[in-house]
Amino acid sequence: MQNVLEKEFVIFDVETTGLSAAGGDRMVEIAALKVKNLEPVERFHSLINPERSISPGAFEVNRISEAMLVGAPRSYEILPTFLEFLGNATIVGHNISFDLGFLRNELDLAGFLPKKPFRSLDTLRISRRVMPHLRRHPLWFVANALGIERKQSHRAMADVEMTFEVFCQLINLAKKQNILKEIIP
């Protein structure tokens, strides 16, 4: 059987115009880090013109302005490249259902249907399993509890890098707890 850590992972994050893909919010930034043997091997990053305004709340979080997105590609222009980058890797993210919801929405709007469902791992779920003593599990809090000294900036690549560090630490904790194969089947 293949060592679970030899699998290819893509750490993934998006920034958006708001909190609801179903309500019409769109991606404004996408970033990913391809990892093999828990070592970074390739990066993907792009701003995205959402073809709509950014909510004041989203701007307060990610500080991405509409002016920054002038001239940025539209999602349908970068999604084929992202899907190629992703390949057959397992997607990893913190609260991954949020990011995957936006990715699926953009794929649907662009008319791209993935051939199969995405395999994914959620570092939020993993942190709850291996660190049940924490009272909260947002990315910055988990990172801090793991001794990762990095401020969460809510920009896609910075969050990807923080998630990667958290993922590696959570893997080590899962190994020590002898539950790694339960975490990464």
Keywords:
about 180 residues, alpha/beta, Nucleotidyltransferase, domain 5, 5-stranded mixed sheet, globular
Could you explain the architecture of this structure?
With 185 residues, the protein is of the alpha/beta class. The chain has a single domain, classed as Ribonuclease H-like superfamily/Ribonuclease H (Nucleotidyltransferase, domain 5, 2-Layer Sandwich), CATH 3.30.420. It has 7 helices and 5 strands; from the N terminus they run E-E-E-H-H-E-H-E-H-H-H-H. A 5-stranded mixed beta sheet has the order 3-2-1-4-5, with helices on both faces. Helix 3 (96-110) links the parallel strand 4 (90-93) and strand 5 (120-122). Helix 5 packs across helix 6 (156-176). The radius of gyration is 16 Å and the shape is globular.
Low-confidence stretches: none
Structural class: alpha/beta
What is the CA-atom radius of gyration, in angstroms? 16 Å
Spell out the CATH superfamily.
Answer: Ribonuclease H-like superfamily/Ribonuclease H
Instruction: Return the string of H and E elements.
Output: EEEHHEHEHHHH
Using the alpha-carbon principal axes, give the shape. globular
Provide the helix percentage.
Answer: 40-55%
Distance between the amino and carboxyl termini: 11 Å
Average per-residue pLDDT, rounded, comes to: 94
CATH architectural name: 2-Layer Sandwich
